[in-house]
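#dry-run=false #mode=assembly
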Amino acid sequence: MTRFSLAQTPIDTATLRAQLLDDRVGGYASFEGWVRNHNDGRDVLGLRYEAYASLAEAEGAKVLDEALEKFDVLDVRCVHRVGDLVIGEMAVWVGVSAAHRDAAFAACRYVIDEVKARVPIWKHERYAEGDADWLHPDPKP
Amino acid sequence: MAKVTVLYFASLRDAAGVSSEIVEAGGELRTLYEALRERHGFALPVERLRVAVDGAFARWSDDVRDGSEVAFIPPVSGG
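#status=ok
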């Protein structure tokens, strides 16, 4: 079982969610990141995600291990899309199961923040004006 | 001199025109990036990148190892 995975095809949240449920779970929290139609004041038509797959899977797994260690949760999973995505498609999913909600929310937040900051995945946006560009944001202060 | 395979991603790949190449290099990984930055005209300075060797994050001060695979990691933008 791999807790972190890269997906070439649309993310099936019902199946992922079902994998987290068991009798010890009292709370489930999830985060879904979707492709929006604008970024930084520009109209976005669609985007492509590229990953350094082997390192992305290793670093993603490390983030989830850290979440399991830091928070009182039962399980943590994350799936990130790669390839071409259209507006409204799900780009990333995080799911956390726990006995209580506080830990579930906190772990979910930790995972999406760390994945965005550390996992080698890059976004290539196509704009309404016809151009396209890679996003290489400055790290958050 | 060491022979290494260099991997490029995202804007670095676009600038280099290839996703990987084999190069002869010596010294630190930082020096290797500086040389390739000059050759390919990469916009990003070394301070904004991370580096990985054989699939694991490494330090810029590490020496280039013969036969290794070096990946330059530009600022990530997943999520």
